[in-house]
Specification:
- This protein has a single domain, classed as Jelly Rolls (Sandwich).
- It is about 10% helix and about 50% strand.
- A hairpin with a 6-residue loop joins strand 1 and strand 2.
- It starts with 5 loop residues before the first helix and ends in a 6-residue tail after the last strand.
- About 25% of the residues are buried.
- InterPro entries: RmlC-like_jellyroll, RmlC_Cupin_sf.
- This is LuxR family transcriptional regulator.
Length: about 110
């Protein structure tokens, strides 16, 4: 069993996100080609966004740090630390209102190899 210190990893990713032109940095902490579940820790610097995306399976977000807004059509959610949200299959944007760290969990469609 492997333990991941999400707080420390989030600090490191956020430092990288602040200096990246995209304003974001991410690492997969669980998953890959042989798993049906993928978890990714994503840091997004304040004022930056993750643009429109279409999910192939169910996705959830748990906000670990900061404040953010998720927009999906006419629906939106303002997230604060500790908030959890199920993301629609197609969403428009994720905007970091403050420096943000989020844990994204995605169910991978199909049978793992």
């Amino acid at each position: 069993m492997e333990t991941v210190a999400l707080g420390a990893l989030g600090d490191r990713l956020l430092a990288e996100a602040r200096s990246a032109s995209s304003g974001r940095c991410a690492v997969t902490i669980h998953g890959g080609h042989v798993h049906s579940l993928r978890q990714t820790l994503i840091a997004v610097a304040a004022g930056h966004t993750l643009d429109e995306h279409e999910n192939t399976g169910e996705v959830t977000l748990q906000l670990m740090r900061g404040r953010a807004r998720v927009v999906a059509g006419s629906d939106n959610a303002d997230l604060e630390v500790g908030d959890y949200v199920v993301i629609p299959l197609q969403w428009d944007s994720f905007a970091a209102v403050e420096d943000t760290v989020v844990l994204l969990t995605a169910a991978v469609q199909g049978t793992p190899d």
